[in-house]
Specification:
Strand content: under 5%
Protein name: Small VCP interacting protein
Radius of gyration: 29 Å
Region (Disordered): 29-81
Keywords: Lipoprotein, Myristate, Palmitate
Biased composition (Gly residues): 70-81
Pfam families: SVIP
Number of helices: 3
Order of helices and strands: HHH
Oligomer: single chain
Structural class: mainly alpha
Helix content: 55-70%
């Protein structure tokens, strides 16, 4: 029984102090973002290229929405034969 009590003597030194709740929230948010990126780009060799293509596509879509369609018919041109 003396062996068990000797083990508990150093247990107080091993106690980890919990960080401030705000710091803990930030750490958890960073960890969640990291996990999300890892799952998003799983199997992708070059995630930066994928991100660039995605942003470029979003810019093109945004530009198409802001530019008025020519002809007023939604870009469709009918030809009568």
């Amino acid at each position: 029984m003396g062996m068990c009590l000797s083990c508990l003597g150093g247990a107080a030194d091993d106690v980890v102090v919990t960080p401030d709740p705000e710091i803990r929230r930030r750490q958890l948010a960073e960890a969640a973002e990291k996990r999300q990126k890892e799952t998003t780009y799983r199997g992708v060799k070059n995630p930066e290229a994928v991100e660039r293509k995605k942003k470029k596509q979003e810019e093109i879509e945004k530009q198409e929405m802001t530019t008025p369609a020519s002809g007023g018919g939604g870009g469709l041109k009918w030809q009568m034969g």
